[in-house]
Amino acid sequence: MSDFYDLRLSRRRFLAVSGLALAAAAAGCAAGPARSPAQMAQRVAGRQDRPVVVIGAGLGGLIAAAYLAQNGFPVTLVESHDIPGGYATSFDRAGGRFTFEVSLHQTAAKSGTTLRVLSELGLAERLPLAAAPEFAHLVTPELELTLPAADPQGCVEALARLFPAERESIAAYIRELTQVPEETARIPENMGAADYISFPGKFPLLWDIRKLTMAQFIERHIKNPRLKDLLSVYWGYYGLPPSQLSGFYYAVATGDYMKHGGYYYLPRSQALSEALADTIQKAGGRVIYENAVESIELAGGRVSGVVLAGGERLPAQAALADAAAPTVFGKMLAAGAAPADYLAKLTAYRPSLSSFIVWLGLNQEIRGRVKGYGVSLSAGLSAEAEYEASLAGRADQVGLGVALYDNLAPNYSRPGTSTMTIMFVSGYEPWRRFEADYLAGRKDDYRREKERVARELVARVEKRLLPGLSGMIEVREAATPLTNLRFTKNPQGAIYGFEQSLDNAFMNRLENRTPVKGLYLCGAWGHPGGGFTGAMLAGRDAYMKLMEDWAA
Fold first, then answer.
1. What whole-number distance in Å separates Cα of residue 309 and Cα of residue 47?
2. Rounded distance, CA 430 to CA 446, Å?
3. DSSP for residue 213
4. Of 13, 92, 441, 450, most Cβ neighbours within 10 A?
5. pLDDT tens, N- to C-terminus, the chain (552 residues)
6. 515 vs 299, 343, 405, 444, CA distance in Å?
7. How far apart (Å, rounded) are the C-alpha atoms in residues 140 and 424?
8. Alpha-carbon distance 384 to 273, whole Å?
9. What are the structural domains of the chain?
């Protein structure tokens, strides 16, 4: 993610470009002073008498609860799992011989806004990081290509060696790609009406691409079909193919990674989640594990409390939900609590793709035997065809992401062992037929299919990347969209919240302030969306919006 995701340009705010904003500008309205989370809290009277419940301990919920606790609000964080983090977690196998990362490959840990959030919470210097050794390592049936980390010009050179006739187009494309996060970093945090009016002139690139898909963004400069396919190889990290994915969402994240590099939280992403949970508790907040919120109660149209699965009622003047928006509004709230048009909008948005992941604990050290850390292994299809294969769960045709963690950090695994994952983004439909039996505990057919897919993925990696892989495996685990559904309760096992389609991204993304007074979204299903940075910034934005409303 990038600096834009400090949420300065929500859809509601951007509508100020309309005639109403023109009138305000004529009246001399200007941007207000930017305020820190602590300064926002100071504007709220009676903090100690304003209890808040945060629903879900994913990164967004952890961040929101940490801000609330540190700024003197009585906050209770409720999590159904027995550990914090959501997808930012890890698990042990073979008596702790292997510790597997649930989801993280790399994140924009050193982008301006991520550092700001962690600095505000006092964590920026406490979390060790490993820098990804490359921006990308691509393996297709035709070629193997490494694009260097934090080196846009080096990426130009590497691509131009393969496509010398396209050098100028490649340079122009990468220049524009890295310009997107640069422009977003200059957007004022607290925009006034005059800022909205001048936006197209001050930020011409952002204005130009606001309605473009990823494919259209790439095609502004790149015409060669083979090169376009190569540049589209990372569509899976955003959950939609180039023809459907928001061009802004793609560019702001990819441009930031290309310019500043990707990072990994050591020893696993669980360290980030545990640090946040510890911050909440040390500041006086309460964290409840292995329980769930059954309902959100309202009084006079406002949040008044939440009821837990065991019947306990927690009083609350606000609820911040790091949970799936369809679940919050479809199951936790009583019928009629939210406006019909808002519910219709939620129904129109689609959950993102899910994932199929294989974790491998190997009985030998393989560091350096395969090039790259995060390897993108292509079956040779176009991005659009790969997307269709992902929807259908065709494991022989999908693009794979292979993470060789020991190429990232020398001491990642125990001596004499190695750790790797193989994953692809998966549609839910291939697994829907097992859903009823799976949830009822009848898993024989499901396990046979999971085993078949896992074997096929290992065979593909063994053939293309690491000969002899199957003979090195000491531990193998796999997770499907149904696994994600079970642990996160996300509809269809979604891993990115709602899709980042043009009607729900950038200016149009679903806001974290909801029409129910006192209820806010603070995770991947709101603004700005999924991913580690997106979820963390959603937590901050939900906190800031609550402060704005309470200080009003």
1. 27
2. 11
3. B
4. 450
5. 333 333 344 444 443 333 323 322 233 334 455 689 999 999 999 999 999 999 999 999 999 999 999 999 999 999 999 999 999 999 999 999 999 999 999 998 987 788 899 999 999 999 999 999 999 999 999 999 999 999 999 999 999 999 999 999 999 999 999 999 888 888 876 777 787 788 888 889 999 998 999 999 999 999 999 999 999 988 999 999 999 999 999 999 999 999 999 999 999 999 999 999 999 999 999 999 999 999 999 999 999 999 999 899 999 999 999 999 999 999 999 999 999 999 999 999 999 999 999 999 999 999 999 999 999 999 999 999 999 999 999 999 999 999 999 999 999 999 999 999 999 999 999 999 999 999 999 999 999 999 999 999 999 999 999 999 999 999 999 999 999 999 999 999 999 999 999 999 977 899 999 999 999 999 999 999 999 999 999 999 999 999 999 998
6. 15, 10, 43, 44
7. 15
8. 35
9. 35-89+270-349+499-551 (3.50.50.60), 129-186+223-266+351-488 (3.90.660)
Backbone φ and ψ of 165, nearest 5°: -70, -15
For residue 221, the tally of other CB atoms under 10 A from its CB is 19
Torsion angle (degrees, nearest 10) of CA 319, 324, 328, 331: -150
| Residue carrying the six token digits 């606001």 | 210
- Is the distance from CB of 222 to CB of 242 less than 8 angstroms? no
With 0-12 CB in 10 A as exposed, 13-18 as middle and 19+ as buried, what is 201? exposed
pTM of the model: 0.92
C-alpha–C-alpha distance, residues 71 and 50, integer Å: 12
Token pair in block for residue 219: 């095609």
According to DSSP, residue 487 is labeled H
Tokens representing 420 are 């790797």
CA-closest candidate to residue 133, choices 269, 257, 255, 262 = 262
| Planar angle of CA 271, 274, 277, nearest 5 degrees | 150
Helix 193-202, helix 19-26: angle, nearest 10:
110
